[in-house]
């Protein structure tokens, strides 16, 4: 792992508006985001530790982790909201420490906390955002109408955003983030507070966007949501614990995943470990095992412990299994605020 | 796939500032309680204090001195400007808490343009309300030279710019509006009370009593004193203010301008520092 403690001084926003520096030469054009040894602290607390990550252009990339895992810190750094401390990073080949204004003009940012002005209408919010990015006049109006139509908001153009439902507001939020046609869209927990229908809509929009060439990077604490990404990074306690395509990571856990429901999980787990030498993990009243040839093991287990197994399930390893395998503890994110 | 760096969309900072100021104005007119809060309070103060204190107030030598309503009018006008500035500052805290601000912070705009937008919005609102309040001056028996109206508006605008920027400096790092109330009570209200708006600045007479001397210098050191006095001199030049300290009109302009400039520069400087609220 590379440890670089360079350039800890944040670039001053507003001092230098455009950059004449060439994009970081060593980073190929196919890379959207690259971090090397990226670390961040809030006072004494380490939020992000020595992160090495490469995200390609055109990917839907998920940053998955439990709350407090460091994903929001990473999002804040990549979106230029907080200044860099240690390590190096490029976004769209611009240096994150020195070329923040160049990055800002080419990324779209959708925050978890709504950034809409509730006292402005849908159109006014999008227009204002467009003006911040140098758009104006008829081209802005055209772009706004096009976006709002695409997000099914044409009927609500003149409504105050405070009157919209959470799902609609999130759509305006994304439309707002896209008004300047960014090459990279960063989203922090985009589906928080959305009902399942609105969530499905959101994923449809994002997939369409990706098809049109936009790179999409989002943070999430929902395992199922991370599974729809092309690739994902799992962060736990500020460290990168897994990186790859969802199927690839699931395959890395190996074979099949067996879940046993039982009255007496602690004793049964110990008995399985003793009898077969398997790493049986006991988690909240269930036992989980990762084994090759799961179908054979099911028969053997049921025969070996008659009456002690209430239900037994065979499945492919999930991202939760990946998380458990890499960190040794259960993924706590999903249940928090879903 | 789009190519890198093909479309650097950089907005003109002044156009951005204007868009943000426009947002402030739209918000203001959509929040009726703010209009009532910032015009109503000074109006009530003016009428109640004016009625209550007019009997005991005497100024000037003969009959040429102002009544308390007349004397207190510029102070009430500046109080209105101060309240508008306070509302505007509180809105920064709300912008941060509600999330609007973070979207602006990651936009490719210089910070001074964001500060100018906020402060200009607050200033325009203050001047607008000030003009409405000025209509009340028509009820006073003063001879206002109307040709001075542009100068009066200019001075009020500068004072508003200074106060709104000062509010911004205090509000930037706060993440709750409660914190701002403390600043308001400890800094902004005393600043107004010592501006010569509510009671005259005592003259610096040789051999005067020391509390009066201390008050005299404290009020002279207060930049708002010059704004209030300037407004008063423009509004009712014919009245007799003998017995109180009246700075020269030129100094009123210079100090008010410097106050606005320094406060705005300070607001830009603090806005470049990350606020704790950004990392919540």
List keywords for this structure.
heterodimer, A: 338 residues, Rossmann fold, Alpha-Beta Plaits, 2 domains, four-stranded antiparallel beta sheet
Please, could you describe this protein's structure?
The complex is a heterodimer of chains A (about 350) and B (about 280). Chain A has about 350 residues and is α/β, with parallel strands linked by helices. Chain A folds into two domains: about 30-250, P-loop containing nucleotide triphosphate hydrolases (Rossmann fold), CATH 3.40.50.300; about 255-315, Alpha-Beta Plaits, CATH 3.30.70.2810. Chain A contains twelve helices and 14 strands. Chain A has helices at about 70-80, 100-105, 120-130, 135-150, 165-180, 195-210, 225, 245-255, 265-275, 295-305, 320-325, 335; strands at about 30-40, 45-55, 60-65, 85-90, 95, 105-110, 185-190, 215-220, 230-235, 240-245, 255-260, 280-285, 285-290, 310-315. In chain A, the strands form three sheets. In chain A, strands 6-7-8-3-9-10 form a six-stranded mixed β-sheet, sandwiched between helices. Chain A has a four-stranded antiparallel β-sheet with strand order 2-1-4-5, with helices on one face. A four-stranded antiparallel β-sheet of chain A has the order 12-13-11-14, covered by helices on one side. Residues about 1-20 and about 335-338 of chain A have low confidence and may be disordered. Chain B starts with 12 loop residues before the first helix and ends in a 9-residue tail after the last helix. Helices cover about 70% and strands about 0% of the residues of chain B. Chain B has helices spanning about 15-30, 30-55, 70-100, 100-105, 110-135, 150-170, 175-195, 210-220, 225-235, 250-270. Chain B has one domain (about 15-280). In chain B, helix 3 (about 70-100) packs across helix 9 (about 225-235). In chain B, about 45% of the residues are buried. The chains are: A alpha/beta (about 350), B mainly alpha (about 280). Chains A and B meet through helix 2 and helix 3 of A and helix 1, helix 4 and helix 5 of B.
